[in-house]
Design brief:
Strand content: 25-35%
Distance between the termini: 56 Å
Strand order of the largest sheet: 3-2-6-9-10-5-4
CATH class of the largest domain: Mainly Beta
Largest sheet: 7 strands, antiparallel
Number of domains: 2
Low-confidence stretches: 71-79
Length: 246
């Protein structure tokens, strides 16, 4: 039967005192109040409320068990597909659908690059996140499937270029395979080996602090050692899997 009903005991238990007092209440007022403190009246009082005291823990647990039945919990207490702890009730998530959901959150576009054996290496990323001002820290995450991250992982210093709207063509070139990625792309090399774009909205030079394995990505923490910015540039935005301008 849906919705589920309370256990039988919980349906009749609240009426115990009234049933016990029914005959007593039906008597004339002078009889009822005249023997208010009589032995029979005290018996009725004790017999009516003692069960509540003795069995309260049992009925409390029974009620809580009934209230947490799946049907009652979802249809009566929740109006969303989340349970009380805010955890989704879906047992398995489709990675591709989840990727589309994450893609609805617009982010900036950045180039992370450095010099390895005299050759510039780097990749576009939208995982750039500011962490702290004092000390100045930022984070980047790299997928375990990335072929560029193992090379960047060898570097202690890299450059981060925050791309602007006029870098749209450059962003297209930087999506090419690793071997041809920097062909025809003008870059500036810092004395630490960090590589940045000369016309980027911002150039940030960072030093590696920590690596943390997080699921199918490696989360990295970097300390900012220097930075240059141009606030007049409009941003380049990554949204729904595509790079766009505002």
């Amino acid at each position: 039967m849906f919705p589920p009903q309370p256990p039988h005991a919980l349906r009749w238990f609240p009426w115990v005192p009234l049933r016990l007092f029914r005959r007593r209440l039906e008597q004339p007022p002078q009889v009822f109040f005249g023997d208010f403190f009589g032995r029979q009246h005290v018996f009725y009082v004790l017999f009516s409320f003692v069960p509540y005291v003795l069995f309260a823990p049992y009925f409390h647990l029974t009620l809580e068990k009934w209230r947490t039945l799946p049907y009652y919990t979802f249809h009566k207490r929740n109006t969303s597909p989340l349970n009380e702890k805010g955890v989704t009730m879906t047992p398995h998530l489709d990675p591709m659908e989840l990727r589309k959901t994450f893609g609805l959150y617009p982010t900036g576009v950045a180039l992370t690059a450095g010099h390895l054996d005299g050759t510039p290496i780097g990749m576009l990323t939208n995982s750039f996140t500011t962490i702290s001002l004092d000390p100045p820290l930022i984070s980047l995450s790299f997928a375990h499937t990335s072929t560029t991250w193992p090379q960047l992982q060898q570097l202690d210093h890299i450059g981060i270029s925050i791309l602007s709207a006029h870098n749209l063509e450059t962003a297209t070139l930087l999506k090419r395979p690793t071997a041809q990625r920097f062909d025809g792309v003008e870059v500036i090399t810092h004395n630490t080996g960090a590589v940045v774009l000369p016309d980027a909205a911002a150039q940030i030079f960072v030093e590696k602090q920590q690596e943390i394995e997080a699921g199918d990505h490696t989360l990295t923490l970097w300390k900012v050692t220097d930075h240059i910015h141009n606030a007049h540039h409009n941003p380049l935005v990554f949204h729904k899997g595509h790079i766009n301008t505002l």
